[in-house]
Design goal:
Layout: H1 5-29, H2 38-72
Helix pairs in contact: 1-2
Length: 73
């Protein structure tokens, strides 16, 4: 089964929206770092801060591939 760039892009966009919602939830639930522990909060929110730019970069790369594909065909 072949997957198109558009399908992959939609997957990453949906994943990005889910992660943003989860990040907002954790920031709302745990607005104070001392409530759970500074290291746990840093690890949890640090993961979101690390993965979200990677997903955004993947979306931009897929858009660039689609744009350049028009010139190749």
């Amino acid at each position: 089964m072949e997957v198109t760039n558009t399908e992959v892009k939609h997957y990453f966009e949906e994943l990005q929206q889910q992660l943003l919602a989860q990040q907002a939830h954790w920031e709302q639930v745990d607005p104070y770092p001392h409530a759970v522990g500074v290291l746990m909060r840093a690890n949890r929110l640090g993961w979101y801060e690390k993965i979200l730019p990677e997903i955004e970069n993947a979306i931009h790369t897929l858009e660039d591939i689609d744009y350049r594909k028009d010139f190749i065909n």
